[in-house]
Amino acid sequence: MRKLADTIHKTAVTGLMGLTLLGAKKFSLNHLSYLPKMSSFIYRKIGMFLGFFKFKAISQKFYSTAKERTWNVIRTNHVAVVTSDMQKSVKLFEDTLGIKTSQSIPLPEHGVSTVFVELSNMKLELLHPLGDKSPIEKFLQKNPIGGMHHICLEVDNIKNAVKDLKEKNIRLLNEEPKIGAHGKPVIFLHPKDCSGVLIELEQV
Fold first, then answer.
1. Cβ distance 81 to 146 under 8 Å?
2. β-strand partners of 147
3. Taking a C-beta distance cutoff of 8 angstroms, is the pair 199, 188 a contact?
4. CB 118 within 8 Å of CB 112
5. How many CB atoms lie within 10 A of CB 6?
6. Is the pTM of this model over 0.90?
7. Would you tell me how many other CB atoms lie within 10 Å of the CB of residue 191?
8. What is the pLDDT of residues 92-113, one digit of tens each?
9. Exposure letters 153-189 (e unless 16+ CB within 10 A, then b)
10. Could you read off the pLDDT of 4-25 as tens digits, one per residue?
11. Which of 121, 120, 139 is nearest to 129 (CA)?
């Protein structure tokens, strides 16, 4: 691009010099008065020409960067809520709100038992501590009656997501995906790197 600009510049200067010499021989001073206008016209055209290629280069760079993405978020799978009393919470959703719930699913590798509340467009996940070293015990100590714990987003390629997030210095609570409540690989992102929100990614 730089060589092209230099070539155009030299051509324009040479042309103007030629016109000047020609004007000195064949034209009157009135004709030579057009040279500044001609110079301005030529340089405007050069600017438009180079500007077009600059815009094209930037747009191509943006497009190629957008295509480099190797994983994507599909949709929200569920919002997880910690409860200190699972039976009481299930009764609230089933008897009071009339919403269907799943059977309790023990997940010893995650230190929780879970019940899913089935909604039309997503799920709620009720979490209760399981075992002596449950990761949600501290949450209940700070929030004795429970509360919202995390959101789960579905992704199309969790392996690529893990690699990409590590490269972007997003801390993970588990270095490699584990099998979650739906029997699919999941990974948790550190809330301090996600605007204070604990995010779970689940392979679809």
1. yes
2. 82
3. yes
4. no
5. 10
6. no
7. 14
8. 999 999 999 999 999 998 999 9
9. bbbeebeebbeebeeeebebeeeebeebbbeebbbbb
10. 555 555 555 455 455 444 454 4
11. 139
